Structure formats: structure tokens, C-alpha cells
Amino acid sequence: MIRHISWLGASLLALGTACVQADPLAFPASLQGKAIELAPNDPDYARAAVEYAVKPAGQGGVSAALVVKITQDIPVYRMWNGPGDVNAQGNTNRLGGWWSYDAPHGPVDGYRVAYEICRDWNKLKWVATCTLKAGAVVAIGPGQSVSAQTCGDPTGAEQYPANPVDWQTFVNKPWARTSELSCPPESADYQADPLDIAKPKP
């Protein structure tokens, strides 16, 4: 079963420590019986928009992807800035393209490293739990590295290594796919404890 990276494990990866990992494109054990892999010639394959998910080293996204069709409803999770943080159009970043089928836990700094999330991209303060519906087609895969240039850090300090352990889920244009991704009202979300994001902030 795919293991969630620990903060220690993230630190070791960041230092370039060699780790023995399973084949990163092996079908995830935690999705067995809940999803099926689609071949590129499947009529539904294009719905995953793999071309937007798989990116070169240093640019984030995933390093490689499997396209899967969900066969039973599963929970998916996304961390976001919170209801008080809106853009010029008045929208939050609650419904973005990147999700996890593993529930967030551990310190927020470890989560940021595990999922290669630049500080400018997401403040990682709140947790939303939505439902990926049976029939949804998405891309999943191991996280790609993110360079300091991609993060917009001129000091070169903020950068993240690729992570073959914690896979990401890419939902293309989730706001337009309400039949595939169902989210409760924002009031169901919680502000995360930065020391353990599985829990609400005290």
C-alpha cells in the first residue's frame, strides 16, 4: 500500500538520501477495487487531460501518470487557503486541479514537501474533503520536482524533490465537473492544526 511520506522521510528525500521504492507506475494498492486503469486508446482516456498533469523535472505536477476510471465513490482531499482568501474575481482556491486520495496528516511542512507545493501556490491552511464519483476519469501519479525558479524564489532556497511515494490526483477543471467531483459546502471544511493537519486547529 502506498505510504504517506513522513516529515523525516521528506527531509531525507530533500537531502538526496537514496531510498528503495516500488515501481512508481504500479497500480496503487489503496485503489484496488475502486478504480481501473484506462489504456490510451480508451474513448474516456482524453478526459484525464494527462498533457496538463505530467510535467518536466522542476516544474511540478506529476513525473508520470496512470489514467484511471473510478468505479466506486472515494473521498479525495485538498488543502487550500481558506474562505477569507479570495482573488480579484472573488474566488478561493478550494477547487483546484490537484488532490490526494490519501487523507492529509502530519505537520504541514511535511505535507508541503511530500506534495511539492510552493508557498506562493497554496498556504495549506484548510482541508476540504470531497467525493470523486464513480465514473470519474482522472490522472494519478508520483509528484514531480519543483525548482526554486518555478516557486519564484530568487534565493534558491525553496525547492522540492520528486516524490515517488505520495501520489497525486489531477482533476482537470474540477469546477466544470460537478457530476464527477462532489463537494460539500465550505462549512464542512476545517482549519488545520499545522502540527497535525489531520486535526482541526485548536
Word description of this protein:
- By secondary structure, this protein is an alpha+beta fold.
- The protein is 11% helix and 25% strand.
- The chain contains four helices and ten strands, in the order H-E-H-E-E-E-H-E-E-H-E-E-E-E.
- The chain has helices at residues 7-14, 50-53, 108-114, 148-151; strands at residues 35-37, 66-70, 74-80, 98-99, 126-132, 137-143, 163-170, 181-182, 190-193, 196-200.
- The strands form two sheets. It has a five-stranded antiparallel sheet with strand order 1-2-6-7-4, with no helix packed on it. Strands 3, 5, 8, 9 and 10 form a five-stranded antiparallel sheet that branches.
- Helix 1 (7-14) crosses helix 3 (108-114).
Summarize the structure.
This protein has 202 residues and is of the alpha+beta class. The protein is built from 4 helices and 10 strands, in the order H-E-H-E-E-E-H-E-E-H-E-E-E-E. It is globular and about 45 Å long.
